[in-house]
Fold this protein.
Amino acid sequence: MKRFFALLFVSLFMFQLVYADDYTTDVFENRRVENIEKRYKWYKKEYKYIGVMERISSTDYYQDLDNCEVSYSSYKKYNDQTLDENYEISDMYELYQAKKVQYVMLKYKIIPSGKEINISEIEMKDNDNNKIDYEVHDFINCYKATLDYLNDGIADEDNKAKIRSGGYIILKLNKAYDINNINIKLYINSPNSDTKSLEFYFCPTESNSYKTYSKKEIDYSYIISKDEREDTIVDVKVDDSWDNNFEYDLVDFYKEIDEENVSLTSYYKEQKYYRRVTKKYPTYIINKKYLDGYYHDLNLDGYYKDLDNYKLYYKYSNQEVKMIPTSKSNIDNFSYIINNQDSNDTDINNKNGVVLLNKANTKKDVNTDNNCDTNKTAYKYITKYKIKYKYVNIITVISILLNILFIMYLIYKRLKNNN
């Protein structure tokens, strides 16, 4: 008897209806929709490092924005170009320096007496007292064409360059020098005490006209001594008292002005510059590992909702939707009677939560011939929805647990009786 009641108890609970998810992706035109639910695919992210890259907008990649590698392009002069956010503009200071010179002209001004001057030595040194070598490049109205002794370091009264009135000597330096880095000593020995004038020209390059770059006229006089003959030493160095007409080259640009670079032959000019700033970040490609199926909500740590991958699930009522018989006179006011039109779904546009029938019986579809009965009734036949049960509900779970407890109790009584 006990076995009979046990089997009966199990049977009563095991054969209960198992209510489950009553949503479906199928679309039925003529059934009332109680709710529409949008369900998504869910995935877990797996990261694979692929190197450092610039910013990527795609969600298929992850970038560590807290670790950035920055590089810069070369600066370029900014002239109001349109630049994007990847460029930076800075205030800079351009350094301009006068072109270096390689030619020095010494010209003896024409005087009425027409007397010559005697030059025994032309000594040149830079600001560090290093000797500057040169050669005689050209001359006119000058004796002793070679003039090698002018740069031999000996002011010899027996070897002098005699320059007549209006004559000149052009010296070519061994290399180009900054104009304020040239110091000249001129040793002059003349047989009279007349005041004489020499014109000096500094030129950056050779030209047919020996373009004036910086020039000055220097007057001197030689006084004859009864005891000995002496040279008059004329020191020549370009300064702001000269007639300067410098030509400048852009040397470099800096963020700050260095006062040591400011001189007679250099200056700063403020100018805007721009450069491209490239930022790269550690980059990982995201591999998505999807779960099977579609879910509205998922309480699993580490899983993300794929908003672009979803399906619509419909929950239908098992109540029929009927149509009012309609005549030609009111065919344009085609309407439906829908029982219990109540829905709390916010994912659909129809505020009543109802998927309407297709208006197959609109005016253009109804037979309106003269032989047609204007009161002819049109009906839409609906197939009643059948509920599907897929998942175990709470009642079933409780039943199973009670069955298990009952079986364990029977086993316990059996074992006790055997003992």
About this structure: The two ends are 21 Å apart (CA to CA). DSSP finds two helices and 19 strands in the chain.
